[in-house]
Amino acid sequence: MKIFSVTIFAFLLFTFYFTSFGQDASRSSATWHVQKYDLDVTLPQDEKSRSVAVKAVLTIKNVSGKSASTLTLRISTAADVTSVKINDTAADFTKSEEKINSSLSLQRIVTRPPSIAPDALVKVAVEYKINVKENSALSSVSPVSAQFLPLSYWYPTPNSWFFTQGADTAPASVAVNGVSNNFISSGERKMSGNTQTYDQKLNGQPFFVSGKWDVLPFNDPGAQAEAFLPTGSGEIEKKNAIEIHKLASAAKTFVTEILGKPASFPQMRYIAVRRGAGFSSGGTMLIDEAVFRRSKVDSLTAMNVAEAVAKIWLGGATSVNGEGYGVISEGLARYIATQFIESNYGKDVADVERHRQRNSYAAVSKRDSPMSKAL
Question: Is the pTM of this model over 0.85?
Answer without folding.
Answer: yes
